[in-house]
Amino acid sequence: MSVARSLVRVAVQPEALAALEMQGNVGVWTGPVLARLLRTSGLGALRHVGLKHVELSVVAAGDAEVRELNRSWRGLDRTTDVLSFPLLSMEEVETWRSMQRFPRERLLLGDVVIGVPAVVRRADVDFVEDLVRVLVHGVLHLCGWDHVRRSERRSMREEEVRIQQLVLPAVEKVGTPGVR
Fold first, then answer.
1. Domain count, the chain
2. Regarding predicted confidence, which is higher, 102 or 26?
3. From residue 103, how far is each of 64, 86, 100 by CA, in Å?
């Protein structure tokens, strides 16, 4: 019997790489390097939220695409650093988590779209850390977390930081460029 492992599919749009090049990182970031960083981060985030045998799609996009998605789906005519499109309710995710011993197929969790230019503009100290942070944030939304109320914001932020700290060592091992 074959057991399905988690899978993170990554698409890197040219506009995402252009945003990095405009920051003086020409030749440092390529599509495969960014994809490897996102795939490693996504798999780590899934593992640390306790999900196995799931599939996640991550898109590294430019401002125009993120703005259009934000306008279409949330009614907000602006770009942002991350959008999540869950395919399941929180209850469905919890049910899967409790019965995921040896599934033969993966559960499709949803999509995370990362606005790379927004991450570049907002990067506090380290682009890689901020990129991991927004991906973890997006995965948490796919798992049913939200931050509408103050108490939710605090809880979600604590979980985000916890998972980010667990994921970063694996990301550093894959040899991402040092972009500060």
1. 1
2. 102
3. 39, 21, 6
